[in-house]
Amino acid sequence: MNGEPVQEKLQGLGGWLILFGMLLFAMSIVQAVNIYELRSIFFTDVWAVLTTPGAAGYHPFWAPLLVGSAILNLSLFAACCWLIILFFLKKNILPTAFIVIALSFPVYVVVESALITIITGEPIFDAETVKEVNNSFSATVVWIVYLLRSKRVKATFGPISWLEALKLKAEAKAKAKAKAKAKE
Q1: Distance between CA atoms of 133 and 37, rounded to whole angstroms?
Q2: How far apart are CA 160 and CA 45, in angstroms?
Q3: Which residues of 42-78 are buried (b: 16+ CB within 10 A; e: fewer)?
Q4: Per-residue model confidence as pLDDT tens digits over 145-172
Q5: What's the CA gap between 178 and 50, in Å, rounded?
Q6: Of 74, 115, 77, 98, which is closest to residue 21 (Cα–Cα)?
Q7: pLDDT at position 5 over 60
Q8: Are 79 and 99 in contact (CB under 8 A)?
Q9: What is the b/e burial string over 99-110, where b = at least 16 CB atoms within 10 angstroms of the residue's CB?
Q10: Which residues, in sequence order, are CB contacts of 170 under 8 Å at separation 6+?
C-alpha cells in the first residue's frame, strides 16, 4: 500500500461502478427502443383500429393505456438520463433515485400486462414473460444491494441519508431496550 487511506482509494467511478454506469446507459437505450416501438402504434393504422369505436380491435381502454404507456416510457427515459447525469456528477441522491426508478420498471411491466390482459381477455403472463420479469427484478435487487452495501458507493456518492437515519433509529431503539433491560 502506498499510504493512501482506504476511503480515498475507493472514491471515484471505478470498480463495479463502471459496470453500474454501463447499466444506466443500457436502461436508457431500452427505454428509447420502447418509445420508438410505441411511436409506430401512434403513426400507423394500428391506432385507428384500436381506438375507433366499431373497429375490429376497439376497446375503450386502448387509448388511455397507449397514451399512458407512452407518457410513462418518456418519463422513464428522462429518469434514466437523469440517473446518468447524477452518476457522472457523483451526486449522493443517485443510489436512492436508482432504487426508486429501478423498482418502478417491474411494477410498470406487471401493471401494463395486467391491463392488456383485461382488454384482450388473453393472459399476457406466459412463462417467458414471467421469466423476464423475474430476471429483471433479480438483477435490480443485486444492484440495489450493491448500492446499499458498497464501500466504493459510499465513498463516491456519500452516505444514503434515509438509510443512515434508519440505522440510527434502530441503534437508538436497541440502546433504549438495553437500558430498560438493565433497569429491571
Answers
A1: 19
A2: 48
A3: eeeeeeeebbeeeeeeeeeebeebbeebbebbeebbe
A4: 988 888 888 888 777 666 666 676 777 7
A5: 64
A6: 98
A7: no
A8: no
A9: bebbebbbeebb
A10: none
Q: Could you tell me the three cell numbers for 123?
A: 393472459
What gap in Å lies between CA 12 and CA 112, rounded to an integer? Answer: 38
Degrees to nearest 5, angle at CA 103 with 101 and 109: 105
- pTM exceeds cut of 0.70: yes
User: How is residue 127 written as a grid cell?
Assistant: 412463462
CA distance 46 to 134: 30
In 3D space, the residue among 104, 102, 34 whose CA is nearest the CA of residue 66 turns out to be: 34
C-alpha cell at 19: 459496470
Q: Which three cell numbers stand for residue 156?
A: 463516491
Q: How far apart are CA 124 and CA 179, in angstroms?
A: 55
d(CA 97, CA 86): 9
User: Which amino acid belongs to residue 130?
Assistant: V
